[in-house]
């Protein structure tokens, strides 16, 4: 093994979290940084001609290469896990920018009570309100303590939207159920695709409070506080699974990479597959650096004074387990922390509606649309439904492309090939769209991650094993959401509606969302958490873990703004305090 | 090296198709070419004829518009199988292979190439049957893995960008009113509520002028 020259900080993973931390450190300190990214390098110009559905959306060119490493899945601990041999329920990106390149740029915030879910729910409804087998935890921080960082995130991204709660004042037309915002969105809402406008009008007529979706695909030209300028979205419709051809979509490659490239103190190594974090144990615990296999296959030790783990939920957890840092979570005893609290946002197509008129749905963006959060609260009368928490509805104008969109038919039609099928599919092609629902996923004791005893990656290391299944709370929430979505679809004038058939076992085949969380969660004490709310490892204070792996449970909202808000907060604490006095941040 | 196979097609149904030789040089065919012999990368000629016939029953050419034959679906599938997709370049293929319920996805060891080669054995002389008999033969294999690949790949070949060898002449996009990649819909997105907006389809190369390297040509 070759030893590389020591650096001040090594960052594992070149996605949103890692590159934002790098940008903050590079802008405010003289630390020399190395970023290790397993996938290829990227430039915004790579996306000038990537609007090819087959290679990007169907063959998934931007995603992790599963031939080298995947995860295994089982529904409960009594069963044998099987490898996820092809992509399905979630789509981890690979290469510089990570999933932040191919995302839809939907950027709602978590609700304030998400951060104190255990306390607030117990206070309000008694300890018995949560399911018996839950593992819900408080985060060790409140929304009020995070709001200013959320606002910095919105300014970084240039988020388009309309506030519904400005410092406590509710504003019609915005999301009146959201947490307070200190400032209006940096840019106004996006234009609305027809389907979204139909949804907005129908929801209003039913007495609900629809609002423009917060979008980091920006509505107009914007220059952020770092001096990075982007143009507005052109609604070409190639967002999810693509990089943005015009750079209107906020991506690490257009917001963070240009700044990092100006700093000689930063180096970005691609093709670098990190295998272990090396550390000294107690009494004076400290990470020493990481080992990785470089693009030529040589194993390298990279010593560093600070180590940042920012390689997405599953890989963050796996690297701690492989490195034997901390005590692995044992679901049978409840002991240990690493791998606990695995959650996956409950994301479904609640109602697929078929209309008489054309929708022109090739036009749109991954985040232009209308949301509805009337059921994203915990104070509702859901008599007879018997679940807690909720989620938001979305009528987005994703640009639809024909390989994936062709052949979506009303349930009443049974053919799947041949002349009749073709004619019907052509007739319905531009007349159907889906009202989505994204719900909270509670943490449960028996949903967790550990190392698989059978399956290995290309280097011979064990794969990560997910033990994950839905519970009645999610099933009932989804039943309720489906009824509501069907109600709105009727009011939209849909001719036929396919309601969501219901959640059964966790399904690794159909895309859910890439919002998988937990494994290295934050909390107020080392007893139940791996890191503090500064994302600092409890036992190894020079190790910081960034990303959704630190979330004790999922919120209904998409995680990226919350991930970035915590990175800003950790970066401030490191720059202002840790570097002066290395040690635990109180 | 395997013997070279060609698929002979009538140029009348393939006006405007780009045909690639083995050294990847493109020739634009016009109606003056009465018949064209397209070099095959993976299939034998008989296999290609069977795939073309089966794809035409899945996505027929009829009074509702063109189908798999005009779109060149068999050529598309041939190129996909010859490329990284066909040999499972990006799938996790380490043993042990176990049977599983459908929530775990395809767990088998066979690559798309192997699935086709094996599946086609069950469609011996399929291309010589009458359409009614062809439909009957397909109904018998409807629930097989091979059929699900054939159906999915047929849809892909109907609607992919033409650089992949399918959607010849943009017939698939015209059929459903998909314009292909457009640089901007800014002026139109909120101007056509409830009315069809159908710009003339253009391929990625026509729109951007860029030479794009399709995935099937990469290692």
- Measure the end-to-end span of chain B: 18 Å
Low-confidence stretches of chain B: 20-24
Write down the overall geometry of chain A. Answer: globular
Task: Give the helix level of chain B as a range of percent.
Answer: 25-40%
Largest sheet of chain A: 8 strands, mixed
Q: What order do the strands of the largest sheet of chain B run in, or round the barrel if closed?
A: 1-4
Number of helices of chain B: 8
The ordered H/E elements of chain B are EEEEHHHHHHHH
Please tally the β strands of chain A and state the result. 24
Shape of chain B: globular
Largest sheet of chain B: 2 strands, antiparallel
Strand content of chain B: 5-15%
What count of structural domains of chain B?
1
Estimate the helix proportion of chain A, in percent.
Answer: 10-25%
Helix/strand structural class of chain B: mainly alpha
Oligomer description: heterodimer
Number of strands of chain B: 4
- Give the N-terminus to C-terminus distance of chain A in angstroms: 37 Å
Quick summary of this structure?
Chain A is built from 13 helices and 24 strands. With 586 residues, chain A is α/β, with parallel strands linked by helices.
